[in-house]
Design goal:
Helix content: 25-40%
CATH superfamily: Response regulator
CATH topology: Rossmann fold
CATH class: Alpha Beta
Mean pLDDT: 82
Radius of gyration: 22 Å
CATH architecture: 3-Layer(aba) Sandwich
Shape: globular
Number of domains: 1
Largest sheet: 4 strands, parallel
């Protein structure tokens, strides 16, 4: 376990993970499926699997063909944190079978959109390949940039992501910015996990509204009033 990657985690969180690691982990996946949108967090056991489940649920009716996945910086094969599972159960979502996987170029290079929970995650993604940076954001950051303009009819997700991300520079990610990050609940109470889930859900809902906007209702001509004025039918009854 990299001490550098765990620098932002509390001693309690690190102790929990170290204890669990002694019991062994599952084998890492041997095949990687194509994923359109990938969420990234530190361990892929709290925030990113919650985000993955929430977005997948939101897209069932508006974009069922879009594939959603998640990955992290540290683990392969570790299950989701119990409090993350409990937090998702409030939304009717089950992530109890989730297993963590580490980010890799193979996993990310085909993605249209990569969403970290912190700027550190965006930096780690770009470190794999600088070409991944233009499609990598923190989740709250993308929501803020998405307010610049919704995806237009006929515009691909790739083109929309490129358009809203064009104003950025990798130099702006050297430091953390809590305003554009989802705080890590690892090692904290169930209440903290639930608060984290609410924050993620709000951002995911805003993302769907921008990337898959609901078309405005078509204007239907208003039928002319019956002869004799709008009360003519009533008067004839």
């Amino acid at each position: 376990m990299s001490s550098g990657l765990l620098a932002g985690w509390s001693e309690q969180s690190t102790a929990i993970l170290t204890t669990r690691s002694r019991s062994g982990t599952c084998e890492a996946p041997t095949t990687i499926r194509a994923i359109d949108i990938v969420f990234v967090c530190t361990g892929n056991i709290c925030r990113s699997p919650m985000a993955e489940a929430l977005l997948r649920a939101r897209l069932v009716d508006v974009a069922p063909a879009v594939t959603v996945g998640s990955a992290g910086l540290l683990f392969d094969g570790r299950p989701a944190e119990p409090n993350a599972v409990k937090a998702m159960s409030r939304y009717g979502l089950d992530i109890s079978t989730h297993t963590a996987q580490k980010i890799s170029l193979e996993l990310l290079q085909g993605a249209s959109l990569i969403l970290g929970m912190e700027r550190q995650h965006v930096r780690e993604v770009a470190a794999l390949d600088a070409a991944l940076f233009p499609r990598s954001f923190t989740l709250p950051e993308l929501v803020n940039l998405g307010e610049i303009g919704d995806r237009r009819p006929g515009q691909s997700l790739d083109d929309w992501v490129h358009e809203i991300g064009a104003v950025r520079s990798p130099d702006g990610y050297a430091a953390s910015d809590p305003r554009l990050e989802i705080a890590d609940p690892m090692g904290r109470s169930l209440r903290a996990f639930r608060a984290c889930a609410v924050a993620i859900d709000q951002s995911v809902t805003a993302l769907v509204a921008s990337a898959w906007p609901t078309p405005p209702p078509s204007d239907h001509p208003v039928a002319p009033a019956p002869s004799g004025g709008i009360h003519a039918d009533r008067d004839r009854r």
